[in-house]
Specification:
Strand content: 5-15%
Order of helices and strands: EHEEHHEHEEEEHHEHHHHHEHEH
Radius of gyration: 28 Å
Helix content: 25-40%
Number of strands: 11
Number of helices: 13
Oligomer: single chain
Shape: globular
Distance between the termini: 45 Å
Number of domains: 3
Largest sheet: 5 strands, antiparallel
């Protein structure tokens, strides 16, 4: 296929490249150093895929230019190309982080929970100036890895929670870019309420967890000891996108091919041998079985039920209490559903919006801009109006209803979307 731009027909680059770069004749690429993992974003290497003899130690299929006249005075100004912790914005690395702490090729200094030394070692080039950059960047990468292991994610989350995101550049200034939708061609824009117009703090998931746990004990006669066992929502256990196997009670992480890649029974990881045995040696279920056995945990509210399922099963396992996994899952899902339907947690949240809602300082201006550009705005929510009203007043103000062309509450929007 000589016309395929991703195939290099030159003999010296017949080895499969590390990543695919079109080999257009006389084409150069300025690649951010972050893309290559070589140095800081302020430094770029000029790459060429034809017309240059590759170095023996260069990645196959990608040649760093050895025509040094094309790189202005690289040997004389190599210090200007040096990477530093300041360049890459690593705030948790000390000032001497560019000093080597892991000797290349010396695996004795790498602990058992570290990456293999080969994964934090960069290749070398024939040009000494480039090698200096590679060596210093390698030291930085190794130090980043070393210091990342000293970070406690729970403490980091606690600090972020205390600092908040109201200051410029904080969490609430983050945006998600969407280049696939031309809003100029859109006349009507609709918004869901939960986790779209309003986002909840971690306290809400803790509240749902606690209320569902009490319903398990008081309404479904689960052991009273569960209330004294210090069971609590753990934000570091579950994520969106998991699924619970209703037949086994396992919390499953599925691969993109719908195979069970990892599973947890309670808080204990299921051995791979058991996964193969359960799913007939394939770790996979056919579409019909997936629909009947797996319950997706695909929204943030699901994180509370995921954690409660795992904690309940672990409680039974630790005390050698016999249980039926299917009944446990069904009871917990029922308790979570009852908590939502009863409206109990809605009333608690509505009475203390500052505790349960994240501030959204840019939401009103964004909606105003859309309105002034001629868009029709609608919102829909499964929740009752009195609950939506309290949340909207908190994030948009008392006149929030004037911003919308249409609003629907207790709308069954979830059923419409499904």
């Amino acid at each position: 296929m000589p016309n395929d731009p991703f195939i290099n027909t030159k003999k010296e680059t017949t080895t499969k490249p590390w990543f695919r770069i079109p080999t257009m004749p006389s084409t150069r690429f300025v690649v951010s150093a972050f893309l290559l993992g070589l140095t800081s974003p302020s430094t770029a290497f000029v790459l060429q895929t034809s017309g240059v003899a590759p170095s023996k130690r260069s990645p196959p299929g990608i040649q760093i230019l050895t025509r040094y006249s094309d790189i202005p005075s690289i040997s004389r100004r190599s210090t200007s190309l040096r990477a530093s912790s300041l360049d890459v914005g690593i705030l948790n690395i000390p000032e001497n982080a560019t000093e080597p702490t892991i000797a290349a090729g010396d695996s004795s200094e790498v602990s058992s929970d570290s990456l293999p030394i080969s994964m934090v070692t960069l290749p070398r080039h024939s040009h000494e100036g480039v090698n200096e950059i590679l060596t210093e960047t390698e030291h930085l990468i190794q130090n980043m890895h070393k210091h990342s292991k000293n970070i406690d994610p729970r403490e980091e989350a606690k600090n972020m929670k205390q600092q908040g995101g109201s200051e410029e550049g904080g969490a609430y200034d983050a945006i998600f870019a969407n280049t696939y939708v031309d809003l100029g061609q859109v006349e009507t824009i609709g918004f869901d309420y939960d986790y779209t117009l309003v986002t909840y703090t971690e306290e809400l998931l803790e509240l749902i967890y606690d209320m569902a746990l009490r319903r398990l004990v008081h309404d479904r006669q689960y052991p009273l000891d569960m209330l004294d066992a210090s069971l609590a929502f753990d934000p570091f256990f579950s994520i969106r996108g998991l699924a619970v196997d209703k037949d086994t009670g396992w919390i499953c992480h599925l691969s993109y091919t719908h195979k069970v890649a990892v599973a947890w029974e309670g808080r204990e990881k299921v051995p791979t041998s058991r996964i193969y045995k359960e799913y007939r040696g394939k770790r996979a279920l056919n579409p019909k079985e997936r629909r009947s056995r797996l319950k997706p945990l695909n929204d943030l509210f699901s994180m509370a039920e995921c954690c409660l399922i795992a904690d309940t099963i672990q409680f039974f396992k630790d005390r050698n209490i016999e249980y039926c996994p299917n009944n446990v899952v069904r009871d917990i899902l029922g308790a979570i559903g009852d908590t939502h339907i009863s409206g109990d947690f809605h009333r608690i949240v509505a009475n203390d919006p500052a505790r349960y809602f994240h501030p959204t300082p840019h939401l009103k201006s964004m909606l105003t801009n859309l309105k002034e550009s001629g868009k029709r705005l609608i919102f829909a929510s499964n929740s009752p109006f009195w609950y939506v009203n309290e949340g909207m007043k908190y994030v948009l103000g008392d006149d929030w209803m004037e911003m919308w062309d249409t609003g629907m509450c207790v709308s069954g929007s979830g059923r419409v979307l499904r």
